[in-house]
Design a protein that fits this description.
The chain is an alpha/beta fold and 302 residues long. The protein has eleven helices and eight strands. It has one domain: Rossmann fold, CATH 3.40.50.970. The chain is 41% helix and 12% strand. A hairpin with a 2-residue loop joins strand 5 and strand 6. The relative contact order is 0.16. The chain binds thiamine diphosphate. The site of thiamine diphosphate (TPP) has 13 residues, from strand 5.
Length: 302
C-alpha cells in the first residue's frame, strides 16, 4: 500500500512536467482493495483491471521500474511505452491487460475464466471494476453468463461511490450489488468498513468459494478516491462532493492505520526501502529510451 501511495504521490508532483505521457487515474486512498485481494490470490490466478490500474499492477507485484517507464512512454515499459497508465499489463504476473473502456474487463474476464474451467486449471480470474461499471449492460450480461456456467470468477466492485462526478444516488434506484449478483446465481459479500483485515478475510473466503468450484462471487469493497477522477489534483472545489464527506475516509485510511501497527524502527526501514526503489524507478525511466518509430504498429491489433 505504501509503494502505491508514494509512487502515485510522485506521479502527482511531476505530472505538470509532461514526463508522464498519458492521463493518470490515481488510486490514492483506495490502495487497500487491490492489496487485500491480491494477497489472497495465487500466482497462477489471473487479474483484470481498469484504467485506474497502478494499485492492481503493484499489488500483483508487477515490476515497478517497468511501470514507471511505461508511464513515461519508454521502451523499457511493461507495454514498451505504448500502453501508458491506462492499459497496464504483464502476462508474467497474470495480468493480461487493463482497459480504459468502462466495463470491458468483464466480458474479457468471462473468456479467461471460461478457458480456466475448460482446461480444468485450478486457477481463478479476479476482475476489478468500479461501481460506475455496474451501470453498463456488459456487467449484467457477464454476470448472467458466469452464473449460468459456474465460472471461476471473482468480481471485485471497488465502490468509491462515484462515476466521474456522478454519485450512485443519481444513477441507480437500488444500488445493491450483492442483490444484483444473486439474481444471476452469483454469490456475494460486501466489506463496507474500509478495514484492511475485513478486506483480507472476506477476500480469502470469496476466493475459497470460487476456487472450490462453487461458482462466481461478487465482492463489493467500499473505498474512496481522494484525488480527482483523472489527473493529479484535488477536486473539492467542483462541488459534487465535499472534504467533510471525505474526512472519515482520511481518518480510517487503511495505510495509515496499518502503518501504526508496525514498530517504528521497522516502519522507518520499510519506508526508506520503498522510497529508494521509487527514486530508482523514476531515475531509470527518465534515462530510458523512447521506442523507435519503426515499432509504431508492432503488436497493434485494432
Ligand atoms: C464504455 C465507456 N463509457 C464511458 C466512459 C467514460 N468514463 C470513464 S471513467 C467513467 C466512470 C467509471 O466509474 P467507475 O466504474 O466507478 O470507476 P472509477 O473511475 O470510480 O474507478 C466513465 C463513465 C468510458 N471510458 N467507457
Amino acid at each position: 500500500m505504501l509503494t502505491i501511495r508514494l509512487v502515485e504521490e510522485k506521479v502527482a508532483v511531476i505530472y505538470h512536467t509532461d514526463a508522464v505521457k498519458s492521463p493518470v487515474h490515481l488510486s490514492i486512498g483506495q490502495e487497500a482493495p487491490s492489496v487485500a485481494v491480491c494477497a489472497a490470490l495465487e500466482k497462477n490466478d489471473m487479474v483484470i483491471g481498469t484504467y485506474r490500474g497502478h494499485a492492481l499492477y503493484l499489488a500483483r507485484e508487477g515490476d515497478l521500474d517497468a511501470m514507471v517507464a511505461e508511464l513515461y512512454g519508454k521502451s523499457e515499459g511493461c507495454g514498451r511505452g505504448k500502453a501508458g497508465s491506462m492499459h497496464l499489463g504483464d502476462k508474467s504476473i497474470g495480468m493480461p491487460h487493463t482497459s480504459a473502456i468502462v466495463a470491458t474487463g468483464m466480458p474479457n474476464a468471462i473468456g479467461v475464466a471460461f478457458a480456466q474451467k475448460f482446461k480444468k486449471e485450478n486457477a481463478i480470474t479476479a476482475c476489478f471494476i468500479g461501481d460506475g461499471a455496474v451501470d453498463e449492460g456488459a456487467v449484467s450480461e457477464s454476470m448472467n453468463f458466469a452464473g449460468l456456467k459456474k465460472l471461476p470468477l471473482l468480481i471485485i466492485v471497488e465502490n468509491n461511490q462515484f462515476a466521474i462526478h456522478s454519485p450512485i444516488s443519481t444513477r441507480m434506484p437500488r444500488p445493491n450489488f450483492v442483490e444484483r449478483a444473486a439474481a444471476f446465481n452469483v454469490a456475494g459479500a460486501s466489506v463496507m468498513d474500509n478495514d484492511l483485515d475485513s478486506m483480507l478475510s472476506t477476500s480469502q473466503a470469496a476466493i475459497d468459494h470460487v476456487r472450490s468450484g462453487q461458482g462466481p462471487f461478487l465482492l463489493e469493497i467500499a473505498t474512496y478516491r481522494w484525488k480527482e477522477h483523472v489527473g493529479p489534483g484535488d477536486d473539492w472545489a467542483l462541488g459534487y462532493r465535499t472534504k467533510e464527506d471525505a474526512s472519515p475516509w482520511f481518518e480510517n485510511d487503511p495505510l495509515k492505520l496499518c502503518g501504526e501497527r508496525i514498530a517504528a524502527d521497522r516502519r522507518l526501514a520499510l519506508e526508506s526501502k520503498v522510497k529508494e526503489q521509487i527514486t530508482r524507478a523514476f531515475d531509470r525511466a527518465e534515462k530510458g529510451t523512447f521506442p523507435d518509430p519503426a515499432e509504431m504498429w508492432d503488436n497493434v491489433y485494432a
